[in-house]
């Protein structure tokens, strides 16, 4: 699996998880959802995301 596909999967998981936590626990979890969205938006313009660096250090290539 490539870094880009793994990144999209992780971002999708984080969004679903934080929305679920906002429903059952606290609406403050939506701040995490906003953070993930903002990070995805900036990576669309810069082609860089901190999670990509982390995934590459874990040995995921592609």
- CA(first)-CA(last) distance: 7 Å
Mean pLDDT: 93
Shape: elongated
- The beta-strand count equals 0
- Count every helix, treating DSSP H or I runs of 4 or more residues as helices: 3
Please summarize the sheet with the most strands.
Answer: none
Over all CA atoms, what is the radius of gyration? 13 Å
Low-pLDDT residue intervals, each spanning 5 or more residues:
none
| Helical residue percent band | over 70%
Supply the helix-strand structural class.
mainly alpha
Assess the beta-strand content as a share of residues. Answer: under 5%
Order of helices and strands: HHH
Q: Return the domain count.
A: 1
The gist of it:
With 62 residues, the protein is mainly alpha-helical. It has helices at 3-24, 30-46, 50-57. It starts with a helix and ends in a 5-residue tail after the last helix.
């Amino acid at each position: 699996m490539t870094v880009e596909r793994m990144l999209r999967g992780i971002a999708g998981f984080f969004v679903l998880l934080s929305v679920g936590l906002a429903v059952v626990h606290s609406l403050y979890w939506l701040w995490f959802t906003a953070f993930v969205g903002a990070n995805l938006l900036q990576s669309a313009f810069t082609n860089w995301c901190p999670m990509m660096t982390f995934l590459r250090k874990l040995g995921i290539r592609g």
